Amino acid sequence: MLKQSQASDQWAYYQAKGLKSNGAKQTADLMAALPAHAESAEKWKAEAERYKEEQKEIDKKARELEKERDEEGRESMHRMHQHHIFAYCVTFTQVAIALSAIAALTRRKPVWYVSLLLGAGGLFVFLAGVLQLRS
């Protein structure tokens, strides 16, 4: 999110330089129309060119920030996928614990067997998540 904000700031800066360049070009055109201000027109043309050159550097930096943002976004999505795997593991385990408590209170063996299966399922999902972390 930080990289997105920085890239947006760079693009706003790029646009501001473009506006300044256009303003300087218009001022140069107005000055060029008046013979008494011809040397001032050259100053404004140079200023417009300077803004254009600055825009090129800002464009480059903004694109680099966007590239970093995209790379971090891909990593974030990968981490979120890993999180989901472990969240499933926790869910299976919690349901297994709840069912085993119910089985102990009601003394029903079939409920206890189901809780064992869910606990094994939670362990299986956990191991799958750990193996995925290593790869």
Explain what this protein looks like in three dimensions.
The protein is mostly helical and 135 residues long. It has helices at 2-33, 38-106, 109-134. Helix 1 packs antiparallel against helix 2 (38-106) and helix 2 (38-106) packs antiparallel against helix 3. The radius of gyration is 32 Å and the shape is rod-shaped. The two termini are 27 Å apart.
Descriptors for this entry?
single chain, 135 residues, mainly alpha, 3 helices, 94% helix, rod-shaped
Spatial separation of the terminal alpha carbons: 27 Å
Beta-strand percentage range: under 5%
Radius of gyration: 32 Å
Q: So how many helices?
A: 3
Helix content: over 70%
**Structural class of the helices, strands and pairings?**
mainly alpha
- Order of secondary-structure elements: HHH
Number of strands: 0
Largest sheet: none
Mean pLDDT: 89
Which regions contain 5 or more consecutive residues with pLDDT less than 50? none
Instruction: Name the shape in a single word.
Output: rod-shaped
